[in-house]
Amino acid sequence: MSRARNRIAGLISVFGELLITAGLVLGLFVVYSLWWTNVLADRAADQEGAKVRDQWADQSPGALDTKGGLGFLHVPAFGGDEILVKKGTGTDVLNNGVAGYYTDPVKSALPQDKQGNFTLAAHRDGHGAKFHNIHKLKNGDPIVFETKDTWYVYKVYKTLPETTKYNVNVLQQIPEESGKKTPGRYITLTTCTPMYTSDYRYIVWGELARAEKVDAQRTPPAELR
After folding, report:
1. Strand 150-164 and strand 142-146: pairing?
2. Which NCBIfam families match (predicted)?
3. Catalytic residue among 123, 127, 132, 135
């Protein structure tokens, strides 16, 4: 009987050690997913952003090459870091610590367009987590988009804390789900929710308040000072 008990105790001990090992492996994976991918993505985004600014400095007036990035998103509620915006919302784009504008399933308008909805996506956790603090945006908060020649200042007017990932209506050029019924110049931020999941989407809508030309010193608008 004692041998059987010892054998059972040994098996329990081995099983416990396996659980501890599995827990450590899982913990390391979480660290990799939520910290190390941020480090790598931020490093890549900083390098790409620096290239875009160098291109802007070297280009003649009016010329613009958007292959490296369309411009930079500034959201004071997010903490002050600029976010490079590139074309597309696939993981090949967003995993590099940037935001991307939609080309599918609904094509995004661009800020310089006379009307339409500038629709953006970014990760909320891992890979730079550029929209991690999207829940901090409130009505009236500024969202500023910087291009080579223009500052576009939007003001938040509506948030949708949770909707299905298949809800493409939030991306429409007239975002009726936000309450708008007529064409305008809108911006839409989208990301996953709840945190650490991708089950649903969190949506923030803004409307263009004004556009300011960039001066020689690239003086930011009042909302960013």
Report:
1. antiparallel
2. class_E_sortase, sortase_fam
3. 123
Q: How many domains does the chain have?
A: 1
The 10s digit of each residue's pLDDT in 64-118 is: 556 679 999 999 999 978 999 999 999 999 999 999 999 999 999 999 999 999 9
Query: Model confidence over 115-169: pLDDT tens digits?
Result: 999 999 999 999 999 999 999 999 999 999 999 999 999 999 999 999 999 999 9
* 121 class by beta-carbon count within 10 Å (0-12 exposed, 13-18 middle, 19+ buried): buried
Model pTM score: 0.84
Distances (CA, A) of 63 to 83, 125, 213: 22, 35, 15
Residue 175 is which amino acid? P
Asked whether residue 187 is assigned to any structural domain, the reply reads yes
Would residue 127 show up in a list of annotated catalytic residues for this protein?
Answer: no
Q: Is residue 21 part of a domain?
A: no
- For residue 215, the domain's CATH number is 2.40.260.10
- Per the annotation, the verdict on 135 as an active-site residue is no
Residue 139 lies in a domain: yes
Which residue segment(s) compose the domain that 192 sits in?
45-224
